[in-house]
Amino acid sequence: MECEPTYADVLAARELLAARLPVTPMWSYPALDHATGATVFVKHENVQPIGAFKVRGGLTLLAGMTPAQRAEGLVTYSTGNHAQSLAYACAAYGAPCTVVMPSSASAEKVRAVRALGASAVLHGADMAEAQERAEKLAADGGCRLVSPGDTPALLAGVGTAYVEIFEARRGLDAVVVPVGSGTGAAAAGIVAAELAPGCRVIAVQSSAAPAAHDSWRAGGCVERPDRTAAEGLATGRGFVLPQRLLRTHLAEFRLVSDEQIFAAQRLLASHAHTLAEGAGAAGLAAVLADPEGFAGQRVAVVCTGGNASAAEIAALGGGAGPVR
Ligand SMILES: *Cc1c(COP(=O)(O)O)cnc(C)c1O
């Protein structure tokens, strides 16, 4: 087990990222406040160059490697946005990159990974099978295997989003973070403990893929099926490093249904000028699911990503439910 990232690591990551990524906007929308009964601040990670917050982690990881380490290449596994993050960072630093994606991965995300110059291998029905193939490719090719959840530099990097949030708004009552592997929420906890100890960090996952949630409740990593349409929340298992940090830092871990996520996705489109992918709308879904709990509060919801597939975008405009 690699060591836990600290707040100092997050600040160091911010220095590294300053030249490559501008601070993302955080807006509130009166119509959205009206619909939720709270003051909601939407942190727009959907406007990152890869359309998701994970680019912060990938760039931080690559910045911390030596040229010789980069030259050996990196291999990882992902349903899409971690793949794009690593591909983007490897392109920026001239490192070879291979990503194994489950064969169910969205065509748009696969295309994006390849356009970034990485090699995308479609393999397996789920993340576990993709991971197995990635491990073999790394061993055969002498490349570094990057765990999407248990890599400290990724947590330190994504933590920079929370420095931005807490610096932009004092006195937040809560920050709601969509969770897959848990890197974002764990990093939120590290940063909140320093900058906003009164702010509750609330994690949210889909009830149709509750591996991180159930791991947190169980106090150890468990496996669960991934049946959600929001693939960014679907990792199939808990990850040791983020789970350990979540046990220290998390106030609550909630579940929302795919239908609730879809309704939040629609509301972001109609009330906040924002195209979110399902995972990116889960934070707002948690607020909408508990109007009494959040009434009158100042709540940051992280719109973690905007990489909705063509089918997902079409469904947003139609009368049907989430696309599986
Ligand atoms: C990866 C991802 C998440 C989950 O983040 P973790 O750090 O894996 O918990 C949420 N939303 C989007 C859009 C993602 O890509």
Unreliable runs: none
Named once each, the bound ligands are: pyridoxal-5'-phosphate
Distance between the termini: 35 Å
Shape: globular
Q: Describe the biggest sheet?
A: 6 strands, mixed
The number of distinct β-strands equals 10
CATH topology of the largest domain: Rossmann fold
The order of strands across the largest sheet is 1-2-10-7-8-9
Cofactor: pyridoxal 5'-phosphate
Keywords: Lyase, Pyridoxal phosphate
Organism: Streptomyces chengmaiensis
InterPro entries: Ser/Thr_Dehydratase, TrpB-like_PALP, TrpB-like_PALP_sf
Structure description:
This is Pyridoxal-phosphate dependent enzyme. It comes from Streptomyces chengmaiensis. Keywords: Lyase, Pyridoxal phosphate. This protein is α/β, with parallel strands linked by helices. It folds into two domains: 210 residues, Rossmann fold (3-Layer(aba) Sandwich); 94 residues, Rossmann fold (3-Layer(aba) Sandwich), CATH 3.40.50. The chain is built from 16 helices and ten strands. The strands form two sheets. Strands 1-2-10-7-8-9 form a six-stranded mixed β-sheet, sandwiched between helices. The chain has a four-stranded parallel β-sheet with strand order 5-4-3-6, with helices on both faces. Helix 9 crosses helix 10 and helix 13 packs across helix 14. The radius of gyration is 18 Å and the shape is globular. The two termini are 35 Å apart. The protein binds pyridoxal-5'-phosphate. Pyridoxal-5'-phosphate binds next to helix 5, helix 10 and helix 14.
